[in-house]
Amino acid sequence: MSAAPIDLPRWADAGLVPLVSVAAALLVAGLVVLGIGESPLEATALLLRGALGSAEGIGFTLYYTTNFIFTGLAVAVAFHAGLFNIGGEGQATIAGVFAALACLWLQPLPGFLLVPLAILSAAAGGALYGFIPGWLQATRGSHVVITTIMFNFIAATLIVYLLVEVIGKPGSMQPETANFAGHAILTPMHQLLAPLGLKLPATPLNTAFLLALASLVAIWALIFRSRLGYCIRTVGANPRAAAYAGISPARITMVAMAISGALAGGLAVNEVMGVQHRLLLDFTAGYGFVGIAVALMGRGHPIGVGLAALLFGVLYQGGAELSFDKPGITRDMVVVIGGVIILFAGALDGLFRRFVASGLRLGRRA
Amino acid sequence: MPPLAIALSGISKHFGPVAANKDVSLSIAAGSIHGIVGENGAGKSTLMSILYGFYEADAGEIRIAGEARQIRSPADAIAAGIGMVHQHFMLVETLSVVENIILGAEGAAWLKNGVGKARAELARLAQDYGLVIDPDAIVGDLSVGLQQRVEILKALYRGADILILDEPTAVLTPPEADQLFALLRALKAQGKTVVLITHKLREIMDVTDAVSVMRRGEMVAHLTTAETSPPELAEAMVGRRVLLRVEKEARRRGKPVLEAVGLGVRDARGVELLQDLSLTLHAGEIVGIAGVAGNGQSELLEVLAGLLRSSRGVIRLGGRILNNADRSPAKLRKLGLMHIPEDRQRTGLVTAFSAAENAILGYQEDTAFGTGLFMSPSRIEAHARTTFNAYDVRPPDPGLKTAKFSGGNQQKIVLAREIERHPKVLLVGQPTRGVDIGAIEFIHRRLIALRDAGVAILLVSVELEEVMALSDRILAMCGGRITGERAAATADERDLGLLMAGVNERAA
């Protein structure tokens, strides 16, 4: 370590710094909106109303949030082991293949067996596809940043081949599988809540959202309360000390990448089993990459990841509504905000920390 | 009265809420050797960094040769005639001596003139100070002592009248240190001013004219060396009376516990880091390894602790030959071999963790800290609280981030963790590096008590004084081999120094 990290109180470190970087990112996005001749305030109001102003909007927001929780947690777990998993897209793609195969092949099984098996199959597919780069780094020294990026391309190509040549719907020109049976899919929330007398509009939000919330708790327990989590954090913070403590950094690298890949598989569960009800191309739609921003903003902590995922859910849903009302502002604006957040929360973190630290000092002096 | 080379008055420097220097004043006579002593964290390095322009003081005045100066960068310091020799050399190892000397002062786009001028200047400096060195030698091939000489030449080439040396003897053998002191005296004779930062009192007594003592950011004493004594200096540094000698009684050693025969280690390039090394450790004895840093001591510790694979050799622990599976850190711990690593921050601790989490590092599988897959934070914290009280870790706050503890208290956390596990064999690397005098005393007493309780201890330290004070037997290492053994009671520093340098005059 060369420069001493700037010391901040915990609340400032966990709360204030991400808030400041998000505010700065939104400010930059506002300037872009201004640049294309629209009013940033009006755009913000439209965005918030679109995301949170109606039951339908909230349903879509939480559906997006589900994806970001899974991909954000995937990146966060790898972070704790000192690994930068950029392969969420590829891992989710392979998880989608595994989920689809389970849903199609195990169709004779009843739903209460089929759905959990398909979810486990998705997790296993993601885990396997995360494990391989982990194994390559642990045994061959190939850096996961490089291999996971390359594995994204392999997965993207592989799924095309599979859908066109192997598991595509017979007689169809579409690169997609047949629709899953009705008992092989995740229940939409509006159906789940209907017996309770709640009349909700139909949205893609489904029970995968509950799985995502459970994952937040489970990953918190794994990282901060379990022996394995202790080992993962030790390897991430100081691999030499880990070896000294009898923890094998190679083993932890493989385990952490497998867990990370399994979490990325949650994206496939939500999209393939919960929304599309069939396997199709490009269902990952960049959610895997946004997971990096989510994990950075959430500082790798499940609570932070949950909040950051919600923020991105709002941005995605609100952004979609916004581009509908203001054709000049496309959904790419949300991608811009995501990119700026990665830049601010990741690369320029030190800048904002210094900014917050000097702000606190001024406050103390006053 | 000669004019003052350096006059500092009212220097203050804060880092956040911490005052590194509080209203420090210092006067150094021109043409003298002036020592600055203090414990780690007393503010010596901060003060010198202010003088050399790395930091700017919050308040205070700097006068160089009677003239008030604003020193905002090392360039300003060099212009004011100040040169600094850092503890970690600032040299490019792949370049030659003369290329290193002109680095940053090349003079023009083409090197030819600068190099010619540097050669002439080097010849003059060699004549004036006896600083003989081959200008075309590659710096990486030079010994540490000669590399330090290049650093000094670099400063002199830039016209330094004042030379600051930060812990210059930390990396030197005793004979090399003596050569350095002779050089410093020669510089003084030519009218240069030398500022020597150290925590070794013997060096202060040997070579300085005057000495200033710092404690907790303040200047607490200015003394004339001839009129003071090591106990007085130590007391000024710590603020209370300190026992400089380690009290220990002679003990009978027990049975052999750890035996290593014919250990060999090669690095990736095939260089032999350990060669045919054998040693035996008995219960109830401390065996010290004396050696200049980088002569295989670290590798020896790592091989014995299971962190490094040896290419050759056998290790026997408690009579049992260790196979490859036994030689893993986790297994060795179970067999009663504990290890206090040389570098606590890089190896012995995860500084980003809380102190309580570090107090279980290596014992994370112990069911005392939780059953099954999960750990119990309350039990981990309770365990830390008990051991921290027993080992006087300050502050005794298990939740505090480990990086926020001082070096001495971090070392106590490691020490407590390993000793509390009732080792049969304890490997100890640099137990008191970067640790203040008060904690040194504590750590030494603990190690002696452990020896008296029958533990076999292998001690590696670059502090020869420490090795001589604690050990029952001393093994000298040089170039990855053991070059001699001496009983601590009869060992003398000069003789050990020769063994450490690989000159074996009295066959072992």
Task: Give descriptors for this structure.
A: mainly alpha, globular, B: 508 residues, Rossmann fold, 3 domains, nucleotide-binding (chain B)
Summarize the topology.
The complex is a heterodimer of chains A (366) and B (508).
Chain A lengths: L9 H26 L4 H13 L2 H26 L7 H18 L5 H30 L3 H23 L22 H5 L14 H18 L1 H11 L1 H6 L4 H28 L10 H11 L4 H24 L6 H16 L1 H17 L1
Chain B lengths: L3 E12 L2 E12 L3 E6 L5 H8 L7 E6 L2 E3 L4 H6 L2 E4 L11 H6 L8 H19 L14 H14 L4 E5 L7 H16 L3 E6 L2 H7 L2 E6 L2 E7 L5 H9 L17 E11 L5 E11 L3 E5 L6 H8 L7 E6 L2 E2 L7 H6 L2 E4 L3 H5 L6 H4 L18 H14 L16 H13 L5 E5 L7 H16 L3 E6 L2 H7 L2 E6 L2 E7 L5 H8 L8
Parallel strand pairs in B: 3-8, 3-9, 6-7, 7-8, 13-18, 13-19, 16-17, 17-18
Antiparallel strand pairs in B: 1-2, 1-4, 4-5, 9-10, 11-12, 11-14, 14-15, 19-20
Helix pairs in contact in B: 14-15
Please describe what this structure looks like.
The complex is a heterodimer of chains A (366) and B (508). Chain A is mainly alpha-helical. Chain A has one domain: Orthogonal Bundle (ABC transporter involved in vitamin B12 uptake, BtuC). Chain A is built from 15 helices and no strands. Chain A has helices at 10-35, 40-52, 55-80, 88-105, 111-140, 144-166, 189-193, 208-225, 227-237, 239-244, 249-276, 287-297, 302-325, 332-347, 349-365. By secondary structure, chain B is of the alpha/beta class. Chain B folds into three domains: 4-238, Rossmann fold (3-Layer(aba) Sandwich); 251-336 and 423-508, P-loop containing nucleotide triphosphate hydrolases (Rossmann fold, 3-Layer(aba) Sandwich), CATH 3.40.50; 344-422, no CATH class. Helix content of chain B is 33%, strand content 26%. Chain B has helices spanning 44-51, 74-79, 97-102, 111-129, 144-157, 174-189, 201-207, 230-238, 297-304, 329-334, 344-348, 355-358, 377-390, 407-419, 437-452, 464-470, 493-500, and strands at 4-15, 18-29, 33-38, 59-64, 67-69, 82-85, 162-166, 193-198, 210-215, 218-224, 256-266, 272-282, 286-290, 312-317, 320-321, 337-340, 425-429, 456-461, 473-478, 481-487. In chain B, a hairpin with a 2-residue loop joins strand 19 and strand 20 (481-487). Classes of the chains: A mainly alpha (366), B alpha/beta (508).
